[in-house]
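Sequence in, structure out. Go.
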Amino acid sequence: MNTLSQEDALLLLNGLSKIGPISARRILETTNDDPCKVFSLSRTQLLRIQGVGPKMADSILDSSNHVWLEKEKSEIKKRGWSFLYGEKIPTLLHHIYDTPIGLYSHGEIPAGPYVSIVGTRQPSLYGQRICQEIAKGLAEYGCCVVSGLARGIDSIAHKATLECNGKTIAFLGSGLDIVYPPENTSLFCDIVRSGAVVSEFPLGRKADRRTFPMRNRLVSGISSAVIVIESALSGGSLITAQFAADQGRIVFAVPGRVDQPASAGCNELIRNGAILVRNANDVVEEIQTNILPGMTFSNRKQASNRQEEIFSNPSDTTILSADEKTILNLLKDGSILGVDELIESSELDFAKVSSTLSMLEICGDIAKRTDGRFEIK
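Output:
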């Protein structure tokens, strides 16, 4: 194959059907994160990589890859979409175990903080009302509401946010050229006017049982907090909540009647440690205390101004939280430390360290190295 640009190589690697994000990351580690070198490896070299089998190696070496790549690039350009990779991918997604290789985006990804809202596809009138109130409240506080464009709670969250001129992101479980469910085509178009519709999957990929959990990990991964509104014990929203817990995100759940199966999942989450949420204020107070200390959320304008203050004055320690100062002190002597080392030295838990690292990286105080460790910029 002719010499590839970094973007072309990542687009192709992301589009190979036999390779997922974890396998792709493992392969990239062998080339010092140079995606172009991946397609220069021999079959023997590929098969030496842990987890790479014959089918995976053959997909990388397929001579028709260049045809697919040119077609994919042409379609992206024609539609005015973007393929995001590297630093263009939202910061919090770099802190999950299976960071996406790249993301297809229609529209501009708004600034955070991001809060995801998920729930049943068949909400009760109570669930619909609570979802509208919380989504609108979060939008008024300046949060970007994230969901999955599915029927029910997802759609209600997106619509309620747009109704008050808020910011929202929809992650798809299909390629960006396939709107699912199809009745949300107009909502898809509305979202891109003030936010973005995003997908990890190549064009033409249909939604299936494998793609939805992959989508769910991104919905939780980009967010500081995840809110579950009405979910049965076997609901897909609980998968998102589990991803959120594993990723160190705050999990909220709206309580429901104990005799209603549609609320059994939320009630179980609360029983197992999720935070009971009644309104947007509950969410904002928790974020303000434990995720973004010092940020003012009294209204959208003030929240925006506070973000600008933090971003424009990253070295001003007067606006740093105690946890941020602790992490910076551990790194200030030139130390290069990983998450586990920071947890041990700081005596903070995983969730606190993860969220603090994310905020410091956003502010430009620290940088994440290719080996996953952190250092002062």
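Check: The chain has 17 helices and eleven strands. The chain has three domains: 6-80, 104-290, 313-376.
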